[in-house]
């Protein structure tokens, strides 16, 4: 966020005149207003002459400010001459002298300020008001074109009135000292914003004016931004939602009505004061007081609110948590995991517990990393987790459960369930303790609350009725009694809401719009825009004021990025206005989301056209992308259109595209997710070299993209993003600089193969790295690259040491060991996975399904080793756990997976009956889930094994129909497997025509690559030489399109059939008759794991460079992506022309550059010792030029080896960095010192030591650091002066500036 420019104050007060009556208050009015304007530079000018005023104002123009705000106040006499207002200085007579108001306005306009407020307190000051505003606006349009600007002119009276001395100035100061009095203005001066805009001040003064002596006037032009101190601002206050909940309502005197609930508060206080990490939950039905209980504890922890509670509220009987007991609190409504993390982080930074993030925000994974490094667990409170709607589970799993390992995390939430099924929210949270408010008998507490609010004179029958209600309903009805003088005590909560909505005609539309806001809420302009888009009506400021005035108790006024924002007080009311949306495959995005997003994008466009920069902090800059991501294609198109002109919005497109892709993938429209994922990856890759904060986003998107390609069977396309995801996560873990360049597949693979993790320098992303390695291992395995899949799985295990990521990695390694014939190791690894999942399942039943799957894999391993009794024992154990899982009704997806795995295990150990029974259970559980077709196919096989061919046939046909559903269009492997099983089944019962008819029905439903894949799989399943296969493969080739993987597979299968003997292919293409030995050699070259191996193959087999090998090489290259094939053909062409050695030289040097970048300091030292000449080659320097520290290190190696050794020592032991730099400041050359500092970046004093190098080189121009760093510079320079006396001049300059 850009640093705010200090404002300027121009105050001219003339109270003493040579020839006119004195004014008692003119000078003091100016001085007192100046005292109120904290953060404004400039001294008032008291009783100046006209010449002094003109000199003062011209100086203002000669030294213009760079943006910021200007407040200019003139207080004194004025005269109206020929309709021109002239402001009179001390020596003016008012006849032919004085300063024209338009001249005063011109000087202010030329000051360089972007926000200009001119205040004139003088008789007749309303004259020429329009001209003054127009003058400043015209000048600003010329000087500040394309930049946001605003002008306001506030005068003390009209053009025909005289002004009473001191009246206007006193009321203006009162407004800036205590805030507005009118309700409509008080709602807009949020106590959460430090500044208010000039427009709000002018409007509030007019609305509060109560004198008949004179009437001020105010005009404004442009876009008003916060500029004046807000007297209502309360720093370091409690989250507004928690504050109001804890007080039991809102009141003018901020009184607390919290009563009772002693046991519940005591329980939470005990959690907060325990100092024991873990996640605790307060839960209960809507309206039971979850937020009130947490808010009470948080409020008593906050010093300011604590003092208020102790002095104005009733005495409390519960335990006192003590001041400062809660370190950070957030209300999670309408937030995602990264936003919750960022808000928690800001409070922890402000408390001095964690360092500030490198970028403008701190995401979930990074927050977990920094909190894990703390010596004492912080106390974090998250209220309303269920109110995050679609993000609740993500916040729970990606942030809160991970923070709970290192912090005391207290969460309030209702129970919530995934639309698609699975573990409920409380189970995912896996709390160590739960406080359920539904278990409490709170009638006495509600009774006490009602009496406290309504007083003892209320009829006992009313108290008795209200005491039976939940706290929220009691709060609403007591509010209605207090506001309206009566209420229907028999109303349901929904009926009470409807009664409230009936009070204001525009209430339903405006309050419904608030349910769409993110963060702390909508600013007023965004609020109206969304309401108008959803309702088709127009709403004015007066409509908003009416809702705030009549229904303000249902609205939280908060502040975000310096602007007042609004959201609903209670989620229950939000749900009444807009019931929670249940997405599905047919309707992924919520109805209305597109209208909301498009309305906000249109508002964004209008502001941009008005000159407001896109990155001005505000709601649209923070949340427009999220609205677009949750709305779909049309809204994204609007954001893309803005980014064409405003490149600062590129990250927003990437983030929105990622969000949309996640939604599409989750609801079974994965093919539609590929394009936005590719777009997001492209943008993030562009951004990362300058903004490293997006590296984690890039890695995440690449991993998702690789997984998506793999699931769609596009294995060649899956490799590159999967490999790059691993490289990017390694850069995050090792904290190494990155350029995020798009590398070739082989270069990525070499970086993966040659790099070992750097001792977990940054543990934040270790689990993500392990997960990406597992995904890459699976992709390699599916491509038949077994050696690489095994080594990658081993790396996945190495980088983590506990919990679910290690269990998943261990399961992957067990599978890879089994695939490569390492059966005993596979069994041992499976045992370790079982032990890990068993430990995890003890605290969270979510992992029971994983445990069943791990046991089934262990059973397979025992069978492979011939240990039948062990296999049988493990299978029975899996069955017992699966039964336990079945008692958790919410676990249908996990239970379906477990039953499916268990059915296979029963089959493996020969328990046919159990296998069939479990298969039926799995098929029933999987109905409507992603694994439904797979479960049906398994049932079909179990029925076949049990001697029930007719049942198996019916199930097989049903399996095919399920596979043909739109949501299963990309799961061709299951469809093909079902058809193959159906083929053998129909052959066994003597009805082959059924499978032929089914195949015809299936192929009629597909076109393009999907059809080609099915035909290819059908040909692959037939006996070699089957004449029918020729027709299927010929048809496949006509539909294959640009799918190189399918072409590769079709050609391979065709060659297998052709090699078996005579085969009826219409013609003999060269790819069919290609020399098989030459093809094997070409494949050895293409699939070599490194450039060195590639070069060796070509040196040993020069025949690959001949034209006779072109067909073999082309066929081998079909096994790679088009880009990789083009690159390899280019290398082959260069090798033909220049020779193999020269052709591979730049590629081998690029590989060496990658190895040096990824290496540890110790490994870099070894490489410099053994391959120095190559590392200093210009080709290597070109490859690392964007990586400034590595580039500097290599340049240093070519100039001063002694300095390089010291730098490497400092890199190995970061504690020595300052010591090394102090030594080099006097011993190394200025150039070597500069390179050493760059090689050691990032370092807090890097800029200082670069300045020292410049000073030693004789450069007298010193770039001063920010004010808050100058004392640190002076302190460090004192260590350097004894050896560098000329640095005294630097210290002197710093001291003078400070």
Automatic annotation (TrEMBL):
GO BP of this protein: proteolysis
InterPro entries: AAA_16, P-loop_NTPase, Pept_C14_caspase, TPR-like_helical_dom_sf
MF terms in GO: cysteine-type endopeptidase activity
Domain Orc1-like AAA ATPase: 258-410
Sequence ranges assigned to domain Peptidase C14 caspase in this UniProt record: 12-141
Coiled coil: none
The protein, known as: Tetratricopeptide repeat-containing protein
């Amino acid at each position: 966020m850009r640093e705010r420019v200090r404002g300027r104050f121009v105050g001219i007060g003339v109270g003493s005149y040579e020839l006119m009556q004195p004014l008692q208050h003119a000078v003091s009015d100016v001085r007192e207003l100046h005292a109120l304007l904290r953060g404004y530079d400039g001294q008032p000018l008291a009783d100046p002459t006209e010449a002094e005023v003109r000199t003062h104002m011209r100086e203002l123009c000669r030294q213009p400010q760079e943006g910021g705000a200007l407040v200019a106040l003139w207080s004194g006499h004025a005269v109206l001459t020929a309709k021109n207002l002239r402001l009179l200085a001390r020596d003016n007579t008012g006849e032919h002298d004085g300063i024209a108001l338009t001249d005063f306005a011109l000087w202010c306009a030329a000051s360089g300020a972007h926000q200009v407020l001119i205040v004139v307190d003088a008789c007749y000051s309303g004259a020429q008001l329009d001209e003054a505003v127009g003058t400043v606006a015209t000048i600003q349009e010329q000087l500040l074109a394309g930049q946001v600007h605003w002008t306001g002119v506030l005068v003390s009276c009209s053009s025909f009135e005289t002004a009473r001395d001191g009246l206007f100035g006193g009321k203006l100061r009162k407004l800036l000292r205590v805030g507005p009095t009118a309700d409509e203005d008080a709602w807009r001066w949020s106590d959460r914003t430090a500044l208010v805009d000039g427009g709000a001040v002018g409007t509030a003064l007019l609305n509060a004016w109560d004198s008949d002596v004179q009437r001020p006037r105010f005009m404004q032009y442009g876009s008003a931004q916060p500029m004046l101190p807000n007297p209502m601002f309360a720093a370091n206050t409690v989250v507004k939602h928690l504050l109001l909940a804890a007080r039991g309502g809102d009141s003018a005197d901020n009184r607390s009505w919290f009563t009772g609930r002693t046991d519940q508060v005591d329980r939470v206080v005990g959690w907060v004061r325990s100092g024991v990490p873990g996640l605790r939950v307060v839960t209960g039905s809507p309206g039971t007081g979850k937020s009130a209980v947490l808010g009470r504890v948080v409020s008593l922890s906050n010093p300011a609110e604590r003092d208020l509670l102790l002095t104005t509220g009733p005495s409390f009987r519960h335990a006192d948590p003590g001041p400062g007991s809660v370190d950070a609190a957030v209300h999670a409504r309408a937030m995602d995991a990264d936003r919750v993390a960022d808000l928690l982080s800001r409070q922890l930074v402000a408390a001095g517990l964690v360092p500030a993030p490198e970028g403008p925000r701190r995401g979930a994974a990074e927050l977990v990393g920094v909190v894990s490094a703390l010596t004492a667990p912080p106390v974090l409170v998250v209220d309303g987790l269920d109110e995050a709607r679609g993000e609740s589970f993500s916040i729970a799993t990606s942030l809160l459960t991970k923070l709970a390992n290192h912090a005391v995390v207290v969460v309030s939430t209702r129970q919530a369930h995934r639309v698609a099924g699975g573990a409920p929210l409380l189970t995912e949270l896996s709390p160590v303790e739960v406080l359920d408010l539904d278990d409490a008998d709170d009638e006495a507490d509600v009774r006490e609350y009602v009496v406290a609010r309504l007083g003892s004179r209320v009829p006992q029958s009313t108290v008795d009725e209200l005491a039976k209600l939940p706290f929220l309903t009691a709060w609403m009805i007591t509010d209605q009694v207090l506001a309206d003088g009566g209420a229907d005590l028999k109303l349901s909560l929904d009926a009470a809401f409807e009664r409230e909505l009936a009070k204001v005609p525009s209430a339903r539309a405006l309050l419904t719009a608030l349910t769409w806001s993110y963060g702390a809420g909508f600013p007023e302009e965004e609020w109206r825009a969304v309401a108008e888009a959803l309702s088709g009506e127009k709403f004015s400021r007066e409509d908003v004021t009416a809702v705030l005035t009549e229904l303000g108790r249902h609205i939280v006024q908060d502040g975000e990025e310096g602007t007042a924002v609004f959201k609903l007080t209670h989620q229950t009311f939000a749900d009444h206005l807009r019931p929670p949306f249940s997405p599905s495959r047919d309707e992924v995005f919520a109805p209305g989301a597109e209208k909301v997003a498009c309305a906000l994008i249109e508002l964004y466009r209008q502001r941009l056209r008005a000159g407001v920069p896109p990155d001005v902090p505000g709601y649209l800059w923070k949340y427009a992308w999220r609205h677009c991501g949750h709305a779909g294609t049309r809204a994204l198109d609007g954001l893309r259109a803005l980014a064409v002109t405003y490149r600062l919005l590129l990250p927003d497109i990437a983030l929105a595209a990622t969000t949309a892709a996640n939604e599409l993938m989750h609801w079974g429209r994965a093919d539609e997710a590929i394009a936005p994922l590719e777009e997001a990856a492209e943008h993030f890759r562009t951004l990362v070299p300058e903004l490293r904060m997006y590296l984690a986003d890039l890695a995440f998107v690449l991993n998702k993209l690789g997984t998506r390609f793999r699931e769609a069977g596009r294995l060649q396309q899956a490799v590159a993003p999967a490999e790059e995801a691993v490289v990017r996560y390694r850069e995050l873990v090792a904290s190494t600089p990155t350029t995020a360049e798009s590398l070739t597949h082989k270069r990525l693979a070499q970086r993966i193969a040659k790099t070992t993790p750097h001792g977990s320098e940054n543990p934040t992303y270790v689990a993500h790295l392990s997960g990406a390695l597992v995904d890459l291992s699976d992709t390699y395995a599916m491509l038949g690259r077994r050696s690489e899949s095994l080594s990658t799985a081993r790396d996945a295990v190495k980088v983590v040491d506990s919990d679910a990521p290690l269990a998943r990695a261990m399961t992957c390694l067990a599978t890879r060991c089994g695939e490569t014939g390492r059966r005993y190791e596979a069994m041992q690894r499976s045992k370790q996975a079982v032990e890990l999942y068993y430990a995890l399942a003890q605290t969270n039943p979510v992992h029971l399904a994983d445990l069943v799957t791990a046991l089934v894999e262990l059973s397979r391993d025992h069978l492979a080793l011939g240990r039948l009794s062990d296999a049988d024992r493990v299978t029975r154990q899996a069955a017992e756990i699966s039964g336990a899982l079945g008692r958790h009704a919410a676990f249908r997806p996990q239970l379906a997976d477990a039953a499916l795995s268990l059915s296979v295990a029963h089959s493996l150990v020969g328990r046919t009956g159990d296998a069939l029974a479990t298969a039926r259970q799995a098929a029933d559980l999987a109905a409507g889930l992603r694994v439904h077709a797979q479960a049906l196919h398994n049932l079909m096989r179990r029925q076949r094994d049990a001697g029930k061919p007719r049942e198996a046939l019916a199930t097989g046909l049903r399996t095919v129909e399920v596979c043909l559903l739109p949501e299963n269009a990309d799961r061709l492997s299951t469809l093909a497997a079902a058809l193959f099983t159906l083929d053998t089944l129909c052959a066994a019962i003597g009805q082959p025509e059924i499978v032929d008819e089914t195949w015809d029905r299936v192929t009629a439903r597909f076109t393009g690559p999907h059809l080609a894949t099915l035909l290819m799989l059908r040909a692959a399943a037939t006996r070699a030489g089957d004449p029918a296969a020729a027709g299927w493969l010929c048809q496949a080739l006509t539909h294959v399109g640009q799918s190189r993987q399918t072409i590769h597979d079709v050609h391979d299968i065709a060659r297998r059939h052709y090699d078996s003997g005579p085969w009826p292919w219409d013609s003999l293409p060269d790819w069919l008759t290609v020399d098989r030995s030459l093809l094997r050699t070409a494949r050895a070259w293409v699939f070599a794991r490194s450039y060195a191996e590639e070069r060796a193959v070509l040196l040993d087999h020069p025949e690959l460079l001949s034209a006779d090998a072109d067909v073999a090489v082309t066929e081998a290259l079909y096994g790679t992506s088009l880009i990789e094939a083009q690159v390899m053909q280019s290398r082959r062409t260069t090798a033909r022309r220049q020779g193999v050695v020269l052709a591979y030289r730049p590629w081998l040097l690029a590989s060496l550059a990658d190895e040096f970048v990824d290496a540890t300091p110790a490994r870099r030292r070894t490489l410099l010792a053994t391959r120095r000449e190559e590392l200093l080659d210009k080709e290597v320097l070109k490859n690392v030029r964007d990586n400034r520290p590595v580039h500097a290190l290599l340049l240093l190696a070519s100039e001063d080896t002694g300095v390089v050794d010291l730098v490497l020592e400092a890199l190995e032991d970061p504690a020595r960095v300052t010591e090394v730099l102090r030594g080099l400041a006097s011993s190394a050359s200025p150039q070597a010192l500069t390179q050493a500092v760059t090689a050691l970046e990032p370092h807090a004093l890097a800029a200082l030591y670069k300045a020292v190098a410049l000073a030693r080189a004789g450069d007298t121009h010193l770039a001063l650091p920010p004010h808050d760093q100058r004392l640190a510079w002076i302190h460090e320079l004192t260590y350097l002066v004894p050896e560098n006396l000329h640095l005294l001049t630097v210290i002197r300059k710093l001291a003078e500036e400070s």
